[in-house]
Amino acid sequence: MTREVTEVTHLEDGGRAGRRQRLSAVFRAWRTRRHEHAPPTVDTGSPAPEPVPGANTLWRMRTTVKDEPGSLAALCTALAVQQVDILSLQTHPLAEGTVDEFLLRAPGELSASALTTAVRSAGGSDTWIERADAHDLVDAPTRVLGLAARTALDAAELPLALRQLLGRCTIRSQPAPADGDRVPGSLPVEGALDDTVMRLRAPEGGVITVERPYLPFTPTEFARARALVELDARLGPRVPRGRDVLTLAEGSDITVRRADTRDLQAARAMHERCSARTLKLRYHGPVGDADRYLNHLLSPRFGRTLAVQTASGRLVGLGHLLWDGDETEVALLVEDAWQRRGVGAQLLARLVAMAVEAGCASVYAVTQASNTGMVAAMRGLGLPLDYQVEEGTLVITARLGEPVATPAGELGNASAP
What we know:
The protein is of the alpha+beta class and 417 residues long.
């Protein structure tokens, strides 16, 4: 299975959803066409690659068997008859029966349907199968420990860690109600599992909803996800402390660092120093609404934020990497006095480098056709670009490949915000 980490959706009432309502109807249609809830379990509609003689194929497979002696042995025998090697096995006990999860190495000419038929003949039911890759060769305990370590270092890793833990899924973060009730609805302390949907208490008081409509969650997966969220809650707000100090062409020093909701006051102050045109180009709507978006944008639940500050500590730029469905959005805001000095280009290059590190296949920017600075910054990445222009709304999508270099010497040379 290709474990990409971009298939994560985060929604917040009054946040980005409200901003999108102000975009053109055609742009909304474009977004609808591009976003799918979840891929099919086996058949994606595209032709399968031709098998290479002598080659093997990795598969991930789940099937439900009766919880009785000999059930697993019958499955293993059926797979052995098909010359299939079992590389790893996990069992997920249920109230009735057991879900066996296999990582298999099969002859290249053996199809998914043939494997499913063999498993069914051996007593397996509700069988699900898909292609795997080399990343799946890492055993489950090692993978979970790695995800826990990443989450411990950076609160923004929680959505990605859940995505990698559970596979293709949709993750939505619902904030706590404004009336002070920390848990929306009647969610129990331990969360809730309902077939293909799990709901967990978010560390900040809201609810994290995870949906995987093509494959039900098991109690074991629910327990793992809950443990990861509980770890995040115990550790509290945190971002990596790394800072890059860079020198602009005219000699001014700036610092690029990670930011979160603790930078809310400084971000609001930067808004006050920005012109109405700059805010409108960034938020695509009434300037008076700009401050409403900051809590959402700075929250590690919805992505990662980079801040640019001067030697005096004043915030002059923000760059956001936002998990959005099966894609990832990048967005920039640079204070007017610091535009056209390469600050935006440097922010964007770092955001894209983080997207590559996270395994994202592409990033996109939503702007206006008149925003020449953002267009220049995207072109400056040196990546293949796709342009969608409708009624003044410009969506630029960059396909990611090799990591984007961000040498300090290039700062100040790009014509960007």
